[in-house]
Amino acid sequence: MDFEIGIVCARCDAYAPFGTEACRACGLALAIGSSAPSARTAFNELFLPTTAKSPTSIEEPMDQAKNFVCRSCQTAVPIGHKFCGRCGAAVPPEILNIHTQFFGHLQMPGKAKLILIRGDGVEGLSYQLTADEHVLGRSGQLILPDDAFVSPRHANLFYREGSLIIRDEGSLNGIYVRVRGSIEVHPGDQFLAGEQLFILESAPVLNEAPDAEGTYFYSSPKYQSPFRITQLLEGGGPGMTVCARGSSLQIGREGGDLNFPSDPFMSTSHCRLEDNSQVLFLIDLNSRNGTYLRIRSEHKLAHGDYLFIGRKLMRIEITAA
């Protein structure tokens, strides 16, 4: 028995061979639109063996969700277009002005996030600071178990009157905050530049009197110096001590008063200490890796501040209130 496959008119049920554009009986258009498969395709799918179709990619519905559907003709209109490309209808203002919003703890006004910085400035783990207080150390809410220079209870981050405060909890190695431009310092302050740790000290009082027998102590030439710095070595022992020859003392890799040519984290001109009318300032000279000052007790943090705790570099991000 022979079979003939064709198209049946949806209006009058009349038969028409494949390829017929209109029903010969009633004139109804038989061409199938682009949104549906052709008759030949339908025949192949029904009677010829086919390979399994791959499932629809998840990106396809996601791409569709990015478009606005025209309320007049139901055509997808890409976000950012002002008019429908098919019927010309205007896109509503509330769609034109729509903005992407991210939901999460960071969107809470006035709350902050602490981000660990790995090598070359790459961001690592981050911690949402949404509780009343956040104890950081080898134990507590924010744990750094792999850093031997971090005390068990090292620091506490908490909010006071809408501001984020960091407090030293009696740690051995302290908390260092990156200097923005310049900051006033005092004798006893410690600061980091490159891999070097320094302590600022007052200039020693010179004893120029002779001994009991009237003999003077012979020494190198003495210079008037308003302050000096001492390098602190691992274990707390003193390293080099340098007195300021004038009103300032510059530290860097080369060309300064105190140079560390083999320190890979030290800039050529890294920082400078300056005596301005008996007030001392620590000035960062736009160094690549920054200059960090140890806080004495607690410190009010701002958006973008960098912290050095133990061997960990961190950055603070605060959502505007």
Oligomer: single chain
Number of strands: 24
Which H/E pattern describes the elements? EEHHEEHEEEEEEEEEEEEEEEEEEEE
What is the CATH third-level topology name of the largest domain? Tumour Suppressor Smad4
What number of structural domains do the residues give? 3
Radius of gyration: 37 Å
Helical fraction: under 10%
SS content category: mainly beta
**Main beta-sheet annotation:** 10 strands, antiparallel
Number of helices: 3
β-strand percent reads 35-45%
Mean pLDDT: 83
Walkthrough of the structure:
The chain has helices spanning 39-47, 59-65, 93-96, and strands spanning 6-8, 15-17, 67-69, 76-78, 112-117, 123-129, 133-137, 142-143, 155-160, 163-168, 175-178, 182-185, 190-193, 196-202, 227-232, 238-243, 248-252, 258-259, 271-276, 279-284, 291-294, 298-301, 306-309, 312-318. It has 321 residues and is mainly beta. The longest helix is centred in the N-terminal third of the chain and has 9 residues, at 39-47. The protein starts with 5 loop residues before the first strand and ends with a strand. Mean pLDDT is 83; it is low at 33-39 and 50-65.
Summary, kept brief:
This protein is mainly beta. 6% of the residues lie in helices and 35% in strands.
Question: What topology does this entry show?
Answer:
Blueprint (H helix, E strand, L loop, with lengths): L5 E3 L6 E3 L21 H9 L11 H7 L1 E3 L6 E3 L14 H4 L15 E6 L5 E7 L3 E5 L4 E2 L11 E6 L2 E6 L6 E4 L3 E4 L4 E4 L2 E7 L24 E6 L5 E6 L4 E5 L5 E2 L11 E6 L2 E6 L6 E4 L3 E4 L4 E4 L2 E7 L3
Parallel strand pairs: 7-8, 17-18
Antiparallel strand pairs: 1-2, 3-4, 5-6, 5-24, 7-9, 9-10, 10-22, 11-21, 11-23, 12-20, 13-14, 13-21, 14-15, 15-16, 17-19, 19-20, 23-24
